[in-house]
Amino acid sequence: MTGREQIVEFRPIGVIRTPFTEVSGMPIQPAGAEGVKGRIEMLPEFVEGLRDLDGFSHITLLYHLHRAKEARLTVVPFMDTVPRGVFATRAPRRPNAIGLSTVKLVSIEGGVISIENIDVLDGTPLLDIKPYFPEFDERTDVRLGWLEDAKGRARRTRSDDRFDEEE
Amino acid sequence: MTGREQIVEFRPIGVIRTPFTEVSGMPIQPAGAEGVKGRIEMLPEFVEGLRDLDGFSHITLLYHLHRAKEARLTVVPFMDTVPRGVFATRAPRRPNAIGLSTVKLVSIEGGVISIENIDVLDGTPLLDIKPYFPEFDERTDVRLGWLEDAKGRARRTRSDDRFDEEE
Q1: pLDDT of residue B167
Q2: Chain B residues lying within 8 Å of A130, measured CB to CB
């Protein structure tokens, strides 16, 4: 199998609502979006799948970076001035524009999930929710490549029009 | 926007090779796959995007759970005996069958990435690679919901035929 022939189709399970209606000035990661409140509006047919989720303090969201322009294999990340391979960055202009953010779960009422520390554009189509479980998701003894120098800077960095997600 | 009308299409950027040719007996998470070696075979047209990735010790893979059966909104997870909402679990039978694993990066030679601690089926279509960056991905003060009791058990738990990913 080469993967070349396959197309994988996904359908959003809901939409993410945030205060961010344009890319410029947005936090680039949840670490920089502390206190930013948003909500997830689930499509009614998926609400059953939220059962027991309210026991978790944090959830990992997978979503479609729906306003990213066409992919680039080499990008200059927000936190750098040097061109990097896109897979060594979190830049939105990826071959498959899937975003990943772990946010704070505040409450769930019916099909509406209140969240905090959210760093995505208003109207972002949600593809999946996974409970955040450090035993699965955390690693020790990490090396951070070019991001080593950027440690601590993610919190302060804001997006500019570099990837211009606007259509 | 309701999200209802949209279909999001992705194309694999490569394939994940592992020793696991069937679901039964597989580790259920990278934590239980310590030392398991695998590799990623990138499609040639995406190799450019790997530049600078070799500086990172860990990478997060997003992939298509291509052998998962049709979605269920309520599941009994491997680490439990009680039915749970699918979004409160990592079970593969999800509305959008996207898997998420953070693995150890061993080396990159051309379009082949050697990895360790990999917990997916051989032949799994890869959708995205992101560098693992604790500042983005780790959270403190977490509550683990139903998984609180399962802490420490993820390492030992193996899959059975519960989700029977075989066709």
Answers
A1: 31
A2: 87, 90, 100
